[in-house]
Structures are given as structure tokens and as C-alpha cells.
Amino acid sequence: MLKKVILIGAGGYAKSVLDSLDKTKYEFYGFIDNFQTVGNYHLGYPILANKLEDIDNKEKYSYFISIGNNLNRLKHFLNLSKNNCNIINIIDKSAIISAGAKLGTGIFIGKLAIVNNGTIIGDNVIINTKALIEHGCLVENHSNISTNTTLNGDVIVEKMSFVGSSSVINGQLRIGAGAVVGSGAVVIKNVQPYTVVAGVPAKYIKDVG
């Protein structure tokens, strides 16, 4: 019998998540979303509740947080954990994951993404479509690595960071906690925590507000 999965979040990111769900292991049951009307349908599936607490027999289901925003994703992850809910990983069948990589809980790895040997991916992390995470990297909890991004060898991305689409992080660099790397940036030096950088080469723009 397939395990029933509930997605938390019915926005655009949920489309990618749902498309990558392994239908041989899981049956998609419906959404929890506080911006949708309970009983309506979205992408052909029901809105089950506006919040986790409204789900009866929560332990019967598995859950995944289909929300791109790091802070919102963190809040839901903590709530699921507090309620002892089973949080799954969703890894697209086209992704390439080294046997030597270590994966946490609640991770999304999208189409054609690559996670190489010796890399550690923390909890509640997004590795989006075509992202390349080279050998020996560390992506800490609740971070978001966007589409077509390259992390070269031994890069550390600290917790709650966002690395924008098509950016390149040179090897052995550190992206500080809560930092934002703009799309298309080429990062050639460490990025300080809670700062925004962008450009080629990437330069400081402002503090995260």
C-alpha cells in the first residue's frame, strides 16, 4: 500500500514538487495551505486544511513542505517536528546523487540536479532544477539553492541562505548564514552572514532587511 503524502503549500513551487514525487512509493493526498479555501481543488487535488492542526490522525500521513521562502519553510518544519510528523525527501528520478553524499530530512532535489561525493545536505533544503553541488560541499539547514546554480568543490552554504539562479560559487568559499546571492552572480570571495551580494564578480549590495 502506497504511503499518503500531504504537501504544505500550494503555490508555484508545489508544481515542481508534485511532478517529482515518486508515484511508485507515494500517493499524493492533498494540500495544506492557509491562503486556499478548504474543499476547493488545486492542480486536481483537494485543499484539505488551512493548518496542520486541522488534520485528523496526523500520524497516518507523510508530509513535505512545498514552500520556497526559507523562513516560512522553517516555521512549518519546526511545527511538523513538534507534532512528530513523518517528513519525507522528494528527489526527482533524473537527479544524480552520489552514494557518498549524505542527505538530511525534508529535502527537495529537482530535475537533473547533481549532488557529488562527500557533500552533506542538511534538513529542509531545496536543491532546484539543474543545480550542481560539487564534491565536499556542505549546505546547511533550511537553505535554498536555486535553478542552474553551481557550487564548486568544498563550498559551505550556512543555514537559511538563498543562492539565486545560474550563480556560480568558486571552490572552498563560505556563504554566511541568511545571506542572499543574486541570480547570475559569480562569487569569488566569502559572503558575510545576512548580506546580499550580486554581480560579476559578486559585490556587497546591502544587509538583509
Note the topology.
Elements: E1 3-8, H1 12-20, E2 26-32, E3 41-42, E4 45-49, E5 62-65, H2 70-82, E6 86-87, E7 90-91, E8 96-97, E9 102-103, E10 108-109, E11 114-115, E12 120-121, E13 126-127, E14 132-133, E15 138-139, E16 144-145, E17 150-151, E18 156-157, E19 162-163, E20 168-169, E21 174-175, E22 180-181, E23 186-187, E24 195-198, E25 203-207
Parallel strand pairs: 1-2, 1-5, 2-4, 5-6, 7-10, 8-11, 9-12, 10-13, 11-14, 12-15, 13-16, 14-17, 15-18, 16-19, 17-20, 18-21, 19-22, 20-23, 22-24
Antiparallel strand pairs: 3-4, 24-25
Domain PglD N-terminal: 4-76
Keywords: Repeat, Transferase
Protein name: NeuD/PglB/VioB family sugar acetyltransferase
Plain-language structure description:
It is a single chain. The protein has two domains: 3-88, Rossmann fold (3-Layer(aba) Sandwich); 91-200, UDP N-Acetylglucosamine Acyltransferase, domain 1, CATH 2.160.10.10. 11% of the residues lie in helices and 33% in strands. The protein contains two helices and 25 strands. With 209 residues, the chain is mainly beta. The strands form four sheets. The chain has an eight-stranded mixed β-sheet, with no helix packed on it. Strands 3-4-2-1-5-6 form a six-stranded mixed β-sheet. The protein has a six-stranded parallel β-sheet with strand order 8-11-14-17-20-23, with no helix packed on it. The mean pLDDT is 98. The chain has helices at residues 12-20, 70-82; strands at residues 3-8, 26-32, 41-42, 45-49, 62-65, 86-87, 90-91, 96-97, 102-103, 108-109, 114-115, 120-121, 126-127, 132-133, 138-139, 144-145, 150-151, 156-157, 162-163, 168-169, 174-175, 180-181, 186-187, 195-198, 203-207. Belongs to the transferase hexapeptide repeat family.
